[in-house]
Every structure is written in structure tokens, then in C-alpha cells.
């Protein structure tokens, strides 16, 4: 038996499928956090450009993104933020985003729960930057 066969699939480099759903209990595993960071890096801004004008929690999503990129944010909080942002970015989730009126309900619930748990890490400058980002996305600047 070698080290690769003993390690969990979260540790093995090939053990994580980037297209698979996010398991909440694994959000803080370093390999999963890195995968979530990659998902967010690749998909957050393209999705925000498409949906920012249609979702009421756009400022929250943008503020969480800003906070997750802040070096002063604790690593555990960042991992939770990246998991929520990755869930938002994934095309497959509990309620597909293409469903009119209800498609983003699950995403909004994820952000509401996230903010209840780690909202104290969001600083006024994260919110201010998020509001400026949203104005730019809406063409208001």
C-alpha cells in the first residue's frame, strides 16, 4: 500500500472532480478550498455580469467575494465564503438558475446562512467596493 492509496480522496490530487457538487462537510478541507477558489476565480465575474441586475443579493455576493480576497480575513472564514461563492457559480445546484423567479432562491439562502455565520468579517470597505462594483455592472457609473 502506498501513501496515495491511504490518503482520502480530498488529499489525492486526482480525487476531486471540479464539476461535482460541493459537499458542505468538506468545505474546510484545504484541497477543497483550493478547488473552490479555482471555481470562483474562473466563474464568479462571468456569472455576475450575466445576473447582477436580476438578483437581489448581488451586493452581498460581491461583498463576500471582496472579503474572501482580503488578506486580513481568517482562513476558515475564507474557505466558507469560497464554498458559498463556488455554489453560486456552479451551473448545477438545488434549484437551477434558469428557473424563473425561484432559480436563485437557494443561492440567496446560502448567502443568508453564510452571512449569519461569518458576516462579522465583512468590513464597511468590502460593502462599499461591492456597491461600486454593482453600479459598474449595471452601467450606472
Could you describe the 3D structure shown?
By secondary structure, this protein is an all-alpha fold. The chain has one domain (3-18, 26-137). Helices cover 57% and strands 0% of the residues. Helix 2 crosses helix 4 (75-89) and helix 4 (75-89) packs antiparallel against helix 5 (105-118). It is globular, with a radius of gyration of 16 Å. The protein starts with a helix and ends with a helix. The relative contact order is 0.15. The model is unreliable at 1-13 (pLDDT under 50).
Short description:
It is built from 6 helices and no strands. It is mainly α and 141 residues long. The longest helix is centred in the N-terminal third of the chain and has 22 residues.
Radius of gyration, taken over Cα atoms and rounded to an integer in Å: 16 Å
The backbone outline, from C-alpha atoms, is: globular
Order of helices and strands: HHHHHH
Overall residue-averaged pLDDT value? 81
What fraction of the residues are assigned to beta strands by DSSP? under 5%
Tally of alpha and pi helices: 6
The number of E-state strands comes to 0
Largest sheet: none
Oligomer: single chain
Please report the distance between the alpha carbons of the first and last residues. Answer: 60 Å
Structural class: mainly alpha
The total domain count is 1
Uncertain ranges: 1-13
List keywords for this structure.
single chain; 141 residues; mainly alpha; 57% helix
Amino acid at each position: 500500500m502506498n501513501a496515495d492509496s491511504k490518503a482520502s480522496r480530498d488529499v489525492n490530487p486526482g480525487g476531486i472532480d471540479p464539476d461535482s457538487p460541493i459537499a458542505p462537510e468538506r468545505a474546510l478541507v484545504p484541497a477543497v478550498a483550493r478547488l473552490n477558489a479555482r471555481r470562483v476565480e474562473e466563474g464568479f465575474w462571468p456569472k455576475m455580469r450575466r445576473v447582477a441586475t436580476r438578483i437581489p443579493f448581488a451586493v452581498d455576493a460581491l461583498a463576500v467575494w471582496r472579503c474572501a480576497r482580503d488578506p486580513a480575513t481568517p482562513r476558515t472564514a475564507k474557505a466558507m465564503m469560497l464554498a458559498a461563492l463556488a455554489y453560486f457559480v456552479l451551473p448545477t445546484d438545488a434549484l437551477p438558475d434558469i428557473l424563473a423567479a425561484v432559480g436563485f432562491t437557494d443561492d440567496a439562502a446560502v448567502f443568508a446562512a453564510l452571512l449569519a455565520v461569518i458576516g462579522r468579517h465583512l468590513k464597511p470597505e468590502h460593502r462599499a467596493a461591492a456597491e461600486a462594483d454593482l453600479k459598474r455592472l449595471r452601467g450606472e457609473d
